[in-house]
Specification:
The chain is about 25% helix and about 20% strand. The strands form six sheets. It has an eight-stranded parallel β-barrel. Among the domains are: about 5-105 and about 165-250, Glycosidases (TIM Barrel), CATH 3.20.20; about 355-445, Sandwich (Immunoglobulin-like). The longest helix has 18 residues, at about 165-185. The two termini are about 20 Å apart. It has twelve helices and 22 strands. InterPro entries: A-amylase_thermo, Alpha-amylase_C_pro, GH, GH13_cat_dom, Glyco_hydro_b.
Length: about 450
Amino acid sequence: MGVIMQAFYWDCPKLENKEFEWWNFITGKIKTLSDAGFTALWLPPACKAANMGGMSMGYDPYDYYDLGEVDQKGSVPTWFGTRTQLEKLIQEIHTNGMQVYADMVLNHTNGADAEEVNELDGQKRWTKYNPGSGKFPRDWKCYHPSYFERWDDEVFEGMPDLCHRNPYVYSELTEYSRWLIEDIGFDGLRYDFVKGYGTWIITAILERLYEKDNKINFFPFGVGEYWDTDTYITQWLKETNAFTDNPVSAFDFPLRGRLKDLCDTYGFSLKTLTQPGTLVTDNLAHWAVTFIENHDIVRTDPIYNDKMLAYAYILTHEGYPCIFWQDYYNYDLAEEGLTSGIAALIKVHEQNAGGATDILYCDDDLYIMQRRGTNKQKGLIFVLNNAARWNGRLVSTQWASTHFTPQAWRGKDNIDVPLEKYTDGSGASEFWAPPRGYVVYTPQDA
């Protein structure tokens, strides 16, 4: 399915000394990312934010159509750059055969130009917007409570809460989505804080056919941020996808929590990885975007230990894996050209991680699985070891009389190279992994 790079983290323009230059900075990385095997980039919200108290990451949108062209909210460019720079970045992404996903903040806005009295409840709120782009001006009738809906599920940090059932708001947001895809060039949408509004607005946006390359036949990719347990995420997915032929995906937050425990909790049982409670283990991997860190969770609940165990899991298992920029670059987990980093796992993912998953063996400290492969991907054997010593077991695979070579591996305080393996006529062989580590074996004669 590919691999996503989340091409930002919180306050990245400032921390990288790239304020107003982030789009240019990413552009310089595109060829390398493509060569590494990435197939898509997820960008931060591109529009002009409220910038209250300083420049903003964009999750407080003010003017949806100002991508860095209008002198408002303290600057002409956004914190990431100008519209011209963004369009150059998108062109470079497409030239290198990748897709690009926009971050959509549809629940709320911020930075209004004036307070108004809401005539339904008599309360004053900051809901009068006169954006410099001249597009999508708003007043109190665009927000909750309104004539069309008294309330919705949740508000976000006290920001004015858009009423999507107002026909004007609905038409403006769907037009904004069309503009991002057809005019600006995005290929997909990441929906922020989907708990805050009805699923039907996402269905409407994804169900529409868009024009790409002079053909009206493009379905955009979509993924929602529903930060909750698997029960509620599953309910949201089924409701959103009930009547559409372009289903939305969701981030697998429960799986990320489980993988954090794998990395950070002493005595974690690997049997937990086989149990229901995540999108991947609940047979919803086709709708799952798997991840280890993102711009939000890393600030409140980061993984501290042995993070590569978690990356090895998502890059060998089913789902659409998303890699965090800060892990790949700032924390040097890419290790391009080596067998021990994310880059080696991405190569394995793209060449081998296809087909159904079979758990071949699992106890508290040892987990062995196979991906059966497809016509384009040969399949693999993944061994995860939670013990403080080399650990392995004889298992029966689907491959008889086959030569396996280790392609990606890592062990804690151990640099031994795993041995090549050969299955017998019935497909059986011993597969091992180093202490507190993993190995990915791939079939060479299949």
